[in-house]
Amino acid sequence: MNQTPDSIPLRLVQDLQQAKYITALTGAGISAESGVPTFREAQTGLWARYDPQQLATPQAFRRNPRLVWEWYAWRRELVSQAKPNPGHLALAEMERLVPHFTLITQNVDDLHIRAGNQNIIALHGDILKTRCFNCRMLVDSYQQSSQIPPHCPHCGGLLRPDVVWFGESLPPKALDAALAAARDCDLFLSIGTSTLVEPAASLPFIALQNNTPVVEINPEETPLSNAATYILRGASGQVLSNLVRSVWK
Ligand code: OAD
Q1: Closest-lying ligand 1 atom to the alpha carbon of residue 38
Q2: How far apart are CA 73 and CA 57, in angstroms?
């Protein structure tokens, strides 16, 4: 297959140049180069070091709310100190260059927002936001006291991070918007995700069912690799910067 000097197939360059609707799905891998840990990598992934059943389920919160709150406070601190990397910045640039660009993310960090993307569908919530475990209201400010977790100013319930835990449903509007964006695009990018967690893992396959080209950007193989139309193996920071340079510059 003919390739650009950055090893990007020329046919992919043409597909990207012609696409009016591009949808990108990101996972933890895009934030890895910003120092935010991924989940499933053998040595460094969060789920290799911590048990999600003890930290990321409603049952875990009921059992030990303080442990769960503090674990998320630690992760929130990591995210606050991280900065968008060239991969985030390339996706923000794509949103400026492509007529209709939709970014679906499974990440709960705010690095896509800080990079400048505006049309973002956050499937798994936002670690920087807080809501009540009891009345479910989003809470902007709450009294800092010795109580951990803090209490809801509306109903007195315990506050929790506004993220989706195992066993919980995704926000329905976000999921509907993501399904539509996967169905109705001219090209789909799957970036830095293990393609293991549903329903996000189905999104690239929905695009493929509609004969939409799907590009996987990941240093490792995933369950999508055999089906993807194009595979760009490598870290998303470098691959996405090359892609923007080769296609639009
Ligand atoms: P995973 O940790 O499952 O997968 C991260 C993927 O990123 C792997 O396929 C890596 O090969 C890839 N990767 C690592 N470094 C990369 C880099 N520099 N550039 C590109 N890719 C790289 O993370 P997710 O697929 O996002 O859910 O996990 C999905 C969901 O599972 C998360 O949203 C989280 C987790 O449980 C919730 O917390 C609800």
Answers
A1: 2
A2: 16
Pocket test for ligand 1, best of 75, 88, 197 (most atoms within 8 A of CB): 197
Reply yes or no on whether 112 is catalytic. no
CATH code of the region 1-36+84-124+169-249 = 3.40.50.1220
The per-residue pLDDT string of the chain (249 residues; one tens digit each, 9 = 90 and over) reads 577 767 899 999 999 999 999 999 999 999 999 999 999 987 889 988 899 999 999 999 999 999 999 999 999 999 999 999 999 999 999 999 999 999 999 999 999 999 999 999 999 999 999 999 999 999 998 877 788 999 999 999 999 999 999 999 999 999 999 999 999 999 999 999 999 999 999 999 999 999 999 999 999 999 999 999 999 999 999 999 999 999 998
DSSP per-residue codes, 101-112: EEEEE---SSHH
Nearest CA to ligand 1 atom 11: 220
What is the 8-class DSSP label of residue 36?
A: -
What's the 145 CA to ligand 1 centre distance in angstroms? 35
Residue type at 164? Answer: V
> Looking at the domain that runs over 37-81+127-163, which CATH code has it been given?
3.30.1600.10
